[in-house]
Amino acid sequence: MEIKITKTACPKEKPDSSSLGFGKIFTDHMFVMDYSREKGWYDARIVPFGPFEIHPASTVLHYGSEIFEGLKAYRREDGKVQMFRPIENIRRMNSSAERLCLPQIDEDMAMEILKTFVKCEEDWTPSAPGTSLYLRPFMYGNDETLGVHAVHNARFMIIASPVGSYYKEGINPVKIMIEDQDVRAVRGGTGYAKCGGNYAASNRAGERAEQKGYSQVLWLDGVERKYIEEVGAMNVMFKINGEIVTPALTGSILPGITRKSCIEVLKREGYTVSERLLSIDELEKAMADGTLEEAWGCGTAAVVSPIGELSYKGEIFTVNEGKIGDVTQKLYDTLTGIQWGKIEDSFGWICPLD
Ligand code: PLP
Ligand code: COI
Predict the structure, then answer these.
(1) Which of 301, 67, 291 is closest to 197 using CA atoms?
(2) 188 CB contacts (<8 Å, ≥6 apart)?
(3) What angle do CA 6, 8, 9 make, to 5 degrees?
(4) Ligand 2 atom at minimum distance from 258 CA
(5) What is the pLDDT of residues 303-349, one digit of tens each?
(6) What whole-number distance in Å separates Cα of residue 160 and Cα of residue 134?
(7) Residue nearest ligand 2's atom 5 by CA
(8) What is the DSSP string of 98-162?
(9) Conformation bin of residue 250: beta by default, left when phi > 0, alpha when psi is -120 to 50
(10) Which run of H or of E encompasses 294?
């Protein structure tokens, strides 16, 4: 495919890697490609990063037809840049697109686009420990009419942001509030899709949690408010009495790529991992009787993040004395080791740029 590249006339200065945070600074270019039912995908281009015009009736502004992905490019010690399991993000994006009636992107084409774009922005991949270049592909419905229907015109874009750690706590344990009022998703809805609307609906509870000093909320299922689902931007795992438990993919939670990777690492290490329903009653009991040994969240932005405190209906439980546990540490070391090329990738997860 042809990707037309227009380089910026005024490249920005690269940021100091100690001040990165998450998603605040953007690179010099962005990828843009348009879609219509008649033409399919057309006009693939890399252009200078910046604001662009949008029709006031565009579908996304009224009916929320939007999906996104999140993945990272990492700088290895030898200076080369690599991505982590990008094919999984491409497949999940197509699954989200199917749910939202947005167009599919051929996997090979999407991979070529990603690699071309990352190569263009490669110099923006920071090298300080724990930093990476976060890639945010997204797609939105762009019909210029107020009628509600499946999307006929769409736009696909990728922007990139050099990032440090997602939480201000870094690898230190975070505090999570179990949400008992709002719900994030229901089976049959869009929970398994990575669509913007899921996040918009999460903000109210997230804000309440933040006001009380918590990093994020842990969602319960939308029907019975009984089963543990996931955290705002992470899947969640627990070690209860030696068993590693993570909520099953029932359709209302995001099938995380970090979750999948953690399960594969743990199984290879000989752990039994149960993907099953985990009720709040079971978790509360484990917190109360001390059999909850570890809890952690996992996601691209957050990597593997220990949970040091959980609160439910005003009651506060400390997990593993607020310290990172052995399994959490092992997962963090293995995944980050593979991602930054410090340990051998025997899983075949790494994707070099050429
Ligand atoms: N769950 C939600 C709601 C998320 O936003 C994310 C982040 O992408 C995850 C889970 C973890 O998914 P992944 O590991 O693919 O980044
Ligand atoms: C990611 O981990 O890539 C995410 O998309 C989380 C995001 C909502 C900040």
Answers:
(1) 67
(2) 251
(3) 120
(4) 2
(5) 999 999 999 999 999 999 999 999 999 999 999 999 999 999 999 99
(6) 6
(7) 70
(8) HHHTPPP--HHHHHHHHHHHHHHHGGG---STT-EEEEEEEEEE--BS---SS-SEEEEEEEEEE
(9) alpha
(10) strand 292-299
Phi/psi at 144 (nearest 5 deg)? -100, 60
Note the Cα 136 to chain centre separation in Å. Answer: 9
* Whole-number pLDDT of residue 169: 67
Q: Which of 183, 250, 254, 335 to mutate to test the pocket of ligand 1 (most atoms within 8 A of CB)?
A: 254
> Is there an atom of ligand 1 within 6 Å of 256 CB?
yes
The ligand with the least distance to the CA atom of 232 is 1
Q: Which two tokens stand for residue 270?
A: 């000989």
DSSP 8-state class, residue 279: B
DSSP 50-86: ------TTBHHHHH--EEE--EEEEE-TTS-EEEESH
pLDDT over 80 at 146, yes or no: yes
pLDDT of residue 205: 96
| Rounded CA separation 272/341 (Å) | 27
What is the distance between the alpha carbons of residues 320 and 298, in angstroms, rounded to a whole number?
17
Residues in Cβ contact with 346 at an 8 Å cutoff, skipping those fewer than 6 apart:
none
Nearest to 153 by CA among 68, 55, 35, 67: 35
**DSSP class per residue in 220-243:** EPTTTS-BEEEETTBEEEEEETTE
pLDDT tens track for 231-288: 989 999 999 999 999 999 999 999 999 999 999 999 999 999 999 999 999 999 999 9
User: What is the distance in A from the centroid of ligand 1 to the CA of 234?
Assistant: 5
For the segment 166-187, what is each residue's pLDDT rounded down to a tens digit?
767 668 899 999 999 999 999 9
Tell me which ligand sits closest to the C-alpha of residue 161: 2
Return the structure tokens found at 73: 């490019």
